[in-house]
Each structure stands twice: as C-alpha cells, then as structure tokens.
Amino acid sequence: MDSEAHSLQRLKLRAFDLSDRTIRRGEASAVRRIERWRQRAFMIIQCSVTAGVAWLLASLLLGHQVPYFAAAAAILVLGLAYGQRLRRGVDVAIGVTVGVTLGDIWLLLFGAGVWQVVAVCTIAMSLATLVGAGPLMTTQAGAQSIAVLVMAPTFKYGIDRGLDAAIGCSLALLVATVAPSGPLRKPAVVAAKVVAGMAETLEAAADALASKDEEAANAVLDRARAAEKDMATFDVAAAEGLEVVRYSPFRRRHLSEAIAMSDLHAPLDSASRNIRVLVRRCVVAVWRGADVPVAYQDLIRRLAEICRFIAHEFSEHRFPTAARDQLREIGEASAHLQLTHSISTVVILAQVRSIVADLIQLTGMNYHEARELIPDMD
Fold first, then answer.
1. Domains in the chain, ordered, with CATH?
2. Stretch 136-163: mean pLDDT, rounded?
3. Alpha helix (H) ranges present in 111-227?
C-alpha cells in the first residue's frame, strides 16, 4: 500500500509539474504573440487605411462600384514587411497589366473555357518570366489573366480592373514613403539583444569552468547555438532599416546610420561564432578535467561585463565607442598571460582574443585597426 501511495503521489507531482510548465509556456507564447502584434500594429493600420482610401479613390475617380482590386493591390504592395516595397509595387503593377491585357485579348479571340484557361495562364506567366519578372509579378500575371478570362462580362471590365490596380499600387507606393521610425530603431534593439545574449553565455561559461560542472557547460553550449536565431533577426531588421531610408525621402538623413548598423553584421556574426567555439572548448576542458587558469576565467567575465555595456549602448541607440578602451585593456592583458600545456586552455585564450577583436569592430573600427590594438603574446 505504501508503494502504491508513493507512486500515486509521484504521478500527482508529475502531473502538477506538467500543468505548471504548460501554463508557463502558454503565458510565454501569449507574450510573444502580443509583442509581434505590437511590432506590426502600425503596418496593419497603414495597410487597412490605404486599402480603404484606394477603394474610395477608384470609386470617385473612375466611378467603379466594386473596385476591390484597388484595395487588394494596395495591401499587396505595402505587405506586412518594410523591405522591397518598391519592387513589390512594380511587380504587382506589371503583373496585373500583362495579365489583364492578355486576358482581354484572349477573351475576344477565343472565348472562355478549360483549354483557354490553361493556355492563357501559361502564356501570361511565360511572358512575365521572359521580361525578367520575379515570382510575385509572374503569379500576378497568371492570376489576373485567368480572372479576366473567367469573370469579365465585357472587354471593358478587364480594363477597369487594371485601372483599379494602378490606383492601388500608386497610392501604396506613396504611402510607403511615410515610414515610421520603428524600422530605423529596430536594428539597434536587436543588436542589443544579441550582445546581451553573448554576455550571458560568457558569464555562464566562466561559471561552468570555475565549478567544473559538465552539465552546466553543455547547457551553455546549447544556449550559444540558439543565439543564431537572433543573428537572423538582426539581418532582417538591418535590411528593413536600409530599405526605409533608401525609399523614404523623409528618412534619407538617417542613411549613414542605417548603413553603419548594417555593417555590424560581420563583427556580430564573427563574435557569435567565436563564442560558440570558446564554449565548445570549455565543454571539452571540463570533460577532460583540465585546470583553466583563474586569470583566463577572469578575462571571460570581463568580456561579459563589456558585452553588457555594449548592449546597453545599443539599447540607447548609441554606438559603443566608449567600450574601446576597456577592450584594448583586455587585449593587452591577454598578451601577458602564461600559456598552459593544455590545448583546450590555449584555444580558450585564443578565442578570448578573437572575441576582443570582434567587439572592437562594434565600436566603429575595422578589422585591421582592431587587430593592431591587440598586442602579440609575450
């Protein structure tokens, strides 16, 4: 009976643990969804209002009763991302023009039917491809040729449809130039998150070395590998920022800043990779029971502190030039440490020096300048 009671108690505890974890994951998921909506709120409103105005303009200027494609084209051009709006707008406009024109001609010559649908779609998409169309333009050409062929009650219907699309595309491209400042701020925010994650990883790696905890070291390695997703997010944010300043006359003064933020990809990516190598070597060192000098561990902790400072500077939308002197001090200190006979500890020290060079580049220096600030080993 005692054994059964004990088993029942364990099942209850396990069920409670699973329930608690489910609740926490649900709350975390809800927070992420709300944050995603908050980031897209401006774009959602922008698309909705632009679609309504496009419908109104097509109704007033052209007298169309149901100008749905004016609204649809506006949404297609604006989309839910800031990147490539101009190209998207041109693609939609050309695709619609090709599709509508071909659909009208085909309807007049051959009428509508199964083989006509196959033929007109093939020809429209082929023409779009031959003129150098992207995937969006090509699919628009095919879709609109079929729509006109099947739905158009008269020849004029296809022309009206093209005019609706032209109004929607033109209005959307005009609205796209009035971009919010969010895409300009986002790269710095994401960069701050990336570097803050580096700080946590470095601190945890130093703790694992100090405690010689193999399980903790493996956990740090998993964390370091997961950071790759943040780099992908940074690349998207940087590209969006550049797109905004290039095509919005109201944001052109921020072009140099957007380019500088985009240029951070190389040192951020290199630092992230070097940290993963360092952590992997920490795992090996702990597994082999190697004694990593306390001085090496202290350098890793100092790097973590500087990463926190750099992350704070980015979060305040400042380039972390003030971190340069501290990084140079770490580079100089690393040059005077005694090498050990363990290959793992030698690699750890080498990676620390590489990470210092990467972080110096985040302060605005190029690779060659950063390398000059780190003296050779004694």
1. 42-176 (no CATH), 182-372 (1.20.58.220)
2. 74
3. 114-130, 135-151, 155-176, 182-211, 214-226
